Amino acid sequence: MARTSGSSHYDPLVPHASPGSLYCANVSLTVDSPAGPFTVLDRVSCEFTHPRTAVIGLNGSGKSTLLRLFNALVVPQSGVVRVNSIDPVAFPREARAAVGFVFTDPASQILMPTPIEDIELSLRRHVPDRHERTEKARDWLVRMGLEHRAHHSVFDLSGGERQLVALAAVLAAEPQVLILDEPTTLLDLRNQLKLIDMLDDLGQQQLISTHDLDLAATAQHVAVVHESRIIAQGPPAEMIPRYKSWCAHGFPEWESP
Ligand SMILES: Nc1ncnc2c1ncn2[C@@H]1O[C@H](COP(=O)(O)OP(=O)(O)OP(=O)(O)O)[C@@H](O)[C@H]1O
Fold first, then answer.
1. Where in this chain does the record put each ABC transporter domain (predicted)?
2. Which residue, of 16, 20, 117, 206, is most buried by count of CB atoms within 10 Å of its CB?
């Protein structure tokens, strides 16, 4: 597993934020809502170091918000966050360069009119030569099985095709860490299996929020989020049956420390 640890933002005051991990300590976030203040993250601590970690939990439990901490899309009111030793609050640009973030809704991240142009845009930082960029973008579309869509309007693509284009554009930028928010939502079974094969071939550490327990089972580590907290984490063989049982029979009561 290739992980970059050469960040200049290593913080000796956070001794547990080991290089090459997604770390947070005592992170809380409360937002205003029409019903009054709502706590989205409540004293969350984690250190994800496995090649692939899956985050599972009910709708609205706080999974996406947890993922968004790591590329500075969400700034907590308290606590410490580190991604490969980078502090995303102090260094959001560096964090975003290190983290490839794939959103649930591909429309949020496809910026160009056609798939090939969108992937070329992602390649700009690494591949200065224009022709080489086009060739590499085409290679990504071939990997995704979308070469026949290269020059179509992204608006003519299906939801699943757009999701694959968004994923290709993120991977083309060669991020150190890959974070995917419900990446299989729009995909048919064949593309779900292809996505897992593709993720298996990547060198980056991966953090994936999902309701797809088959995808979660492919992770080495699973964290269960419930009512704004991580309530359990461990190997999928333990966490997934426990989560299914909680869904069927009720979640444990939280005891406030
Ligand atoms: N900025 C915000 N303002 C108001 N409410 C918010 C904000 N951010 C998140 N929330 C609320 O916090 C809760 C957790 O949201 P989040 O998107 O993290 O959940 P999730 O576990 O990813 O849900 P799902 O599985 O449905 O995608 C939701 O009830 C959401 O409406």
1. 22-252
2. 206
- Looking at residue 18, its pLDDT comes to 58
pLDDT over 70 at 230, yes or no: yes
Q: How far, CA to CA in Å, does 137 sit from each of 29, 89, 149, 161, 173?
A: 38, 32, 12, 15, 11
Is 115's C-beta closer than 6 angstroms to any atom of ligand 1?
A: no
CB of 63 closer than 6 angstroms to any ligand 1 atom: yes
Separation between Cα atoms, residue 8 and residue 2, nearest integer Å: 18
| Ligand 1, atom 27: closest residue by C-alpha | 59
Instruction: Read off the pLDDT of residues 94-128 as tens digits, 9 standing for 90 and up.
Output: 999 899 999 988 888 888 999 999 999 999 888 98
CB 7 within 8 A of CB 86: yes
Predicted TM-score of the model (pTM): 0.89
CA distance 17 to 199: 25
Half-sphere exposure of 230 (CA within 13 A, CB side): 25
Q: Is the ipTM of this complex over 0.90?
A: yes
Q: Where are the alpha helices (DSSP H) in the chain?
A: 63-69, 92-98, 115-123, 130-143, 159-172, 189-201, 213-216, 236-249
Decide: 60 in ligand 1 pocket, CB within 6 A: yes
